[in-house]
Design a protein that fits this description.
single chain; alpha/beta; 8-stranded parallel β-sheet; 4-stranded antiparallel β-sheet
């Protein structure tokens, strides 16, 4: 059995504000094999790490309803509050309306303050891709084994429509920092298909087709292609994915669905089908909080449940890696499954 990899989802995002150098550094110190930066572009074309291009989102009354930065508290950027007509209709502040210099004046905050500590709010900058790659290399040298990077291109069709391509600068940076080979500790992932096809012609870095349990890839939607993510998780489509990618990154609900009572359903054939197509399977997302766990692994009256058992279950089903907000939990589960007789 090849040892499954643990990918720190947005860094050790259960412990530090997501997509900060502190979150990535802690994840690698905890032993994660890879850290996962989601990449978006600034107005001046620099790739930075944010899960969304939205820095903060507000409702029609002007109240912040979700944020990963303190941009709403910066009066100098009040006029940047806009509504984006990009298929999502969000009102807020967006990376593509800020230069890197302006973004560096903001500070990260916890995205899930009702569930996680806010003690580090205001402490950390928004990192650039180059800063992340420098950190990964240094962390690998410090711990004596390679540290990996697993970037995702976010909304590539949307950014391309603005003239802010993500693919070329991403591949160039990875090559420059010597992550460009097929055996280097790197993957590139996307929920869209056409940009992965383009990237496959630009680099030998392994590519990962992300597959959600609902909706459809934005590029297919824009092209009038009726295929959904669930369609991509079928045998014929998996074979097509294997023509340009080396792995899939499916929602864990496509592997073991939830029932109406939020308990675990029956395993699907996705892992077996993907392996038959020659694809690795890296499932997402594993989190320790009860609210994210199936009924079987929740601990009544507590914030955190038995996430190690959930990770262990999916690893026992043959997945090749998993994304976790709490990499230490995933590593403990991985070690238990790998070392079990």
């Amino acid at each position: 059995m090849t040892t499954p990899i643990v990918i720190a989802h947005r860094g050790a995002s259960g412990h530090r504000p997501e997509h900060t150098l502190a979150a990535y550094r802690l994840a690698l110190e905890l032993g994660a094999d890879f850290i996962e930066p989601d990449l978006v572009a600034t107005r001046d074309g620099v790739l930075v790490a944010r899960h969304e291009n939205a820095l903060a989102v507000v409702d029609d009354a002007g109240s912040v309803i979700e944020a990963t930065t303190d941009v709403a508290s910066h009066p100098e950027f009040a006029e940047r509050l806009v509504r984006k007509v990009d298929g999502r209709g969000l009102r807020g502040w967006f990376t593509e309306d800020f230069t890197l210099e302006e973004l560096k004046t903001l500070r990260a905050i916890e995205r899930l303050p009702a569930l996680r500590s806010t003690e580090f709010d205001g402490c950390f900058e928004i990192p650039t891709l180059e800063e992340i790659l420098e950190l990964v290399i240094a962390a690998g040298e410090a711990r004596g084994r390679p540290a990996g990077v697993y970037p995702e291109t976010k909304y590539p069709s949307y950014f391309s429509s603005l003239g802010l391509q993500l693919e070329e600068p991403l591949v160039a940076a990875l090559e420059r920092f010597r992550f460009g080979g097929p055996d280097s500790p790197a993957f590139i992932q996307s929920f869209e298909t056409s940009n992965l096809r383009r990237i496959s012609k630009m680099t030998r870095i392994p590519l990962v087709q992300l597959i959600a349990d609902r909706g459809s890839p934005q590029d297919l939607h824009l092209a009038g292609d009726p295929r959904t993510f669930r369609d991509l998780a079928t045998g014929r489509e998996l074979a097509e994915i294997a023509s340009y990618a080396q792995a899939i990154g499916p929602s864990k609900h496509l592997i073991v669905p939830r029932t109406d009572s939020d308990s675990l359903g029956a395993q699907t054939s996705l892992v077996r089908d993907a392996h038959s197509a020659g694809l690795l399977v890296h499932a997402w997302t594993f989190r320790d909080e009860n609210v994210f766990l199936p009924l079987e692994f929740r601990r009544k009256g507590e914030l955190l449940g038995d996430a190690e058992k959930e990770c262990g279950l999916f690893l026992s089903l043959g997945i090749d890696g998993l994304f976790s907000d709490y990499p230490a939990t995933a590593i403990a589960a991985r070690d238990r499954v790998v070392n079990s007789p």
